[in-house]
Request: fold
Amino acid sequence: MTKEPVSGKWSDRTTYHSRVLTSDNVPGYVSGRAALRGLVEPGTLVATEVGDGNLNLVFRCADAAGRRLVLKQALPYVRLVGPDWPMTEERATREAGAIRAHAALSGDVCQLIDFDADRYVLALEDLSDHEVFRTRLNDGGSHHEVAERLAEYVADVAFGTSFLALGEEEFRRRAAASANPELCAITEDLIFTEPYLGAQRNSVRATLEPVVAALQADGGWVGAAMSMKHRFLTSQEALLHGDLHTGSVFVRGGGPELTASALARSAPAPARLSVKAFDAEFACYGPVGFDLGLLWANMLFAGARAGALGQPDRARSLFATLESSWERFVERLWRHWPARRDPAKYPDAFLAGWLREIMRDSFGFAGCEAARRVIGLAKVSDLETLDEDAYRVAGTAMLGFSRTLLIDRDTLSFDDVVDLGRSGLPESAVQGG
Ligand code: SR1
Ligand code: MG
Reply:
């Protein structure tokens, strides 16, 4: 028997069923929303549920003329688990606020068209001409310039939502207004607690169990992860995306620069790269290195997959995006720096010091994300779709990354990361897919 969720505006069964969007009631819903009915023709609208995330319902909607939009509805529970894991629908309100704040600072954000605060529905631009970055990576597609663009986005919002741009009082007001305790609690449990201390929700294939047991007995690794939990809980530097993994990014076009041989063949130029971050429901004020660290760990997952599938050059180029994206992030923050509100209070030494902290944090948070996507509840397809041998190779490499990123985060270099990838994914250990 299906359990009915219990909370707030959804508390009784009749109300719940009248409020949840379905493919059938979406046209009626759209015609009732002034902000939407002029954008698509409700009479010919076809809605298809496409949500493949962990939390929400997502409908892709298209009318007969081909006009499109996306509706995303927060339910009063976590979709991955069901009504047994209640979760505030207010996450939709926080996501809407974060998208608005981020879209004002960066073009690389999926646009919000409308927000229905009563039914917790976000109407978003349709990006079905894009693909999810993780899917592209898993298929062996181009990552050219994507992590670098995302690092610029992180820098734009890091500066624009910090006290440097807003001034201290407005910054504190915004940080307070952006509190997202329930979603942060998921992050605290899944990223900063369960992989290290053990939990019912953890799982790995048998082949990795000894590696995980050894790590969980390693006090240095566990202690370093607890330090990162402390950073996440106590640092409020900027309004983070909060879940910036490769499944939270749409991409279209791009691809490597044209090679001489492609030019000689008159190969068509690749479409201009479009990068759009989405799914910001975990947004909160936090340490800037959290967004960069999640991005980095997920680039490492793509590299570990490539390495385990016998593509060492691709693996190295994916591992190298940590350094290239960091360089882009640093350049971008220095470019914003002259626009700080009060230069007299913040000399250049301030930014130089902050950058050192962000780099250390980013390594540490990458180490947490690397571990939790192997051990914890929310897995990644980069690893899960591999056969047994490749899974063992890539999973062991990611847990090795996790240990080094966490324990050595103060002294680590980007070359160390690439070297670690090379030694963790020896070409002789490479397996079929
Ligand atoms: C129950 S939510 C699990 C994970 O999915 C989201 O995308 C976040 O990464 C969260 O940790
Ligand atoms: Mg998500």
Notes: Residues 253 and 271 are 4 Å apart (CA to CA). The two ends are 39 Å apart (CA to CA). Confidence is low (pLDDT under 50) at residues 429-433.
